[in-house]
Amino acid sequence: MVEHADIRMVHRGGSKINFREPVFTNDSRFLLCAAGESVKVYSTSTEECIHDLQGHTDLVTGVVLNPLNHLQVYSCSADGTVRLWDFTDGILIKTFIIGYPIYSIYVSEKHGGVVFVVVPMANYKSSEQFQLVAVHLPRSGDQEVEARELSAVLCDVSPHPGAASFGREGEYIAAAKDLQLEVFFFKKQKSYRFSLKSGIKKGVKNAFTCVSCHPKEDCIATGHADGKIRLWRNFNQKKEYTYSTLHWHHGAVNTLCFTPEGTNLLSGGIESVLVHWRYKQENQKDFLPRLGAAITHIAVSPDGSLFCTSHSDNKITIIQSCVKVSAVIQGLVKGEGVWTNLIIDPRSKALVLNGKPGHLQFYSLHHDKQLYNLDIVQQEYIHEEGLDQFEVVKAAFDTHGDWLATVEERRKKGSELEVNLKLWAYDKLTQSFVLNTTVTAPHEDRITAMFFSPSPETTMLVTTSLDGHFKAWLLADHSDTKAEGAFWSCDFVGGYHLLKPGCCCFSADGSLLAVGFQEVVTVWSPASWELLTTLSQPPGAIRDLCFGRLSCSKYLLGTSTKNQLCCWNLLTCSLEWSTPMDVSLLQTDPLSENMAAFCNQSGSSDLFVFKPSEPRPLYSQKALCTGKVQHAVFAPRDQMLESCEERTQWLNRSQLYFVTQHMDLLTFSTKTEEDRLLASRKQLVVDDSVAVTPFYLLLGKHRMQQLEKQEVLPNPMAERTQLPQGSIAIKELLHTPAHVLPSASFLCAMFVRSLLISSSSAREEKEPEEEEMESEKEEEDSEGEADSRQGESAAWGPSKELGAPALTKAQERELRRVKTFDHSWLSSLLDC
């Protein structure tokens, strides 16, 4: 059994950027947010990820700016550490080891050198009781420091970071949990508690959901589950406290936030509306509606110029002073489930899965950003519980990514199932997919599997259904008819003894099709639709089928509901081997012979990576995660790893991604890969004064290439050659304000001329060749004249150039020209 010493599981892509409240920098140029095991730094103007601060070994649970240095940020994690970063350069400054899992973090300018964190209470190992403690950060020159000086502030608090807030320049802190609000005054070292009645009998839910304190006055705003907002005053004494009530939200208030000057209060909930309350004029409020999804967090920049809202669809929206949306940072959308499984787009290498309701999302794993959404259902989604609407349940790509097949279904209560099969053609102009064919009711029951044939000879799609049939759909050409383009039609309908097919799979070359009919595996020839053979196996319905790849293409593997993993040899049509395993998912790597099997055991999932031809697994890991892993995919790497160790070779070509039952996207990382990422981050040098954009990096790359060429070719011609971005026209376009620029027609000629290659260098290269040819001809013509003048030259005496230094070729050619020049006109003048 191979151990997993050099491989660890990480949140590499698709992390939740809405997990915690994002933070603006003091200049409002950057936005920092927790994303899995790292902290991402985004540009508020370009939406690009500037830095990815990696170093934590567990989930990052909070991000706050350092109140003593506005260029530094604190991050806390469940790994029990607080880390200090320089976010402008992406450098880890110091690590403070706390020793307990941290769930949230708070700081205040008044409490310098101290951070407040929420950790589990020592007496409660079940992590159901939490306490707010003050951590005094020791001053030390070491990069890793143990911070053991902890002092308890509040007990029995909520681990949610929005449930506590500092008030009036850090003089007190307010924390809410369930039906109780507690305020702790640091100067008095005393706390006051205020409780609300449950109100369940009247149908009112008074439970606290969030807290925000006024920055200048003694006022605490609390949100509640019934949609009300309460403003608490006079809470420095328990008996004379008062509160006023605001009510607009019809659902729970998820988040509250005061503006830096305290003139406005912002609130958000499931309505996808940002509500702008005027402080002390609560009857006046503004709204920014239709933000797309429920609001989970609100943040305001220190200067109050930008607002930021986090949404339940893993999105961050940047808003300019509650007027308009200026930027949207979209993460991987994680809905209620992944019905389409995880698919890799052959063109963009993007991960494709369910996104917004009725959509497919294309997500770049290498850049950790969403590329675009594809509307499959093409109907307006109504956000109402209990309403039956179409959902995308299946999706598949062909080998080259030219075609996309989707299945959408809707089952109404008391009515038949509605199923639509749609085929989409890739449009190179729009760089997206366009609907080509819609098949209404392709089967009489639910579709269980759908795959394209990898054969290059034909474009074929096969679907299996619970109606007892599998169908083959062929792409036909309409060029011989009046219709334009191509269309899809059903070419073959197959079945086996009225059994219901549950899964299917094509061989790597497309020459075989395996269809699992309950407990029987049938193998078909797609060329003639002949049933070639049936394969026997131990009892149990076939759950999944996979053909081997490359050198293991002769094997067919299948899993059954009776906890059996079977391997058949297609050459002998016999069972090669079988093992008792409760395999919940079987996935094959398209670039190697490796296969991954996720097994369910004792409430957790185990992973085994193996080759069908070898009895010993290449890699195994017990208790990978809790619950079943039902979705996984091998994604090809942009750059192949060069690991020679046996335990990590299976990750050289592809990277295995999988989704847990909690909708977390995880993958595996090796030490070689982490070293390469660290080296690439060290080589990246960014100008702090310029927001990094793709255009800026492109210009910087060209400048580096220009400098390299000047170092390699230090000749005058290379020094004269300039790249287009150094021309006057480019500088005018980039550095001159648009309103004072001349018309585009005037600048067009200058711009085009700056892109053309100068012909002077080409002429200078051709001139020496022409001169050499002319000189050779002149030498041949003047051989006779030179012989006749030999006596004359001898009469002038010995040559004076014998002792002169050697002439260059250019000087010799010039001398030959002078010798062959006709001087007869000079003799005629002398005779006169």
How would you characterize this protein structure?
There is one protein chain. The chain has 832 residues and is mainly beta. It is built from 10 helices and 57 strands. It is globular, with a radius of gyration of 36 Å.
Main attributes of the structure:
4-stranded antiparallel β-sheet; 5-stranded mixed β-sheet; 42% strand; globular; mainly beta; disordered N terminus; 832 residues
Concise description?
This protein is mainly beta and 832 residues long.
SSE topology:
Layout (H helix, E strand, L loop, with lengths): L6 E4 L12 E2 L5 E6 L2 E6 L5 E6 L5 E6 L6 E6 L3 E6 L4 E7 L6 E3 L7 E7 L9 E7 L7 E3 L3 E6 L8 E4 L4 E6 L2 E6 L4 E6 L12 E6 L6 E5 L3 E6 L8 E6 L5 E6 L5 E6 L4 E5 L2 E8 L6 E6 L5 E6 L3 E6 L3 E7 L12 E2 L6 E4 L4 E6 L4 E7 L15 E7 L5 E9 L5 E11 L4 E9 L6 E6 L7 E6 L4 E8 L8 E9 L6 E6 L6 E5 L2 E6 L4 E6 L6 E6 L7 E6 L3 E6 L4 E7 L2 E6 L6 E7 L2 E7 L8 E8 L4 E6 L17 E6 L5 E6 H13 L10 H19 L3 H5 L7 H8 L8 H12 L4 H22 L1 H6 L1 H6 L13 H12 L3 H8 L1
Parallel strand pairs: 9-13
Antiparallel strand pairs: 1-57, 2-3, 3-4, 4-5, 6-7, 7-8, 8-9, 10-11, 11-12, 12-14, 15-16, 16-17, 17-18, 19-20, 20-21, 21-22, 23-24, 24-25, 25-26, 27-28, 28-29, 29-30, 31-32, 32-33, 33-34, 35-36, 36-37, 37-38, 39-40, 40-41, 41-42, 43-44, 44-45, 45-46, 47-48, 48-49, 49-50, 51-52, 52-53, 53-54, ...
Helix pairs in contact: 4-5, 6-9
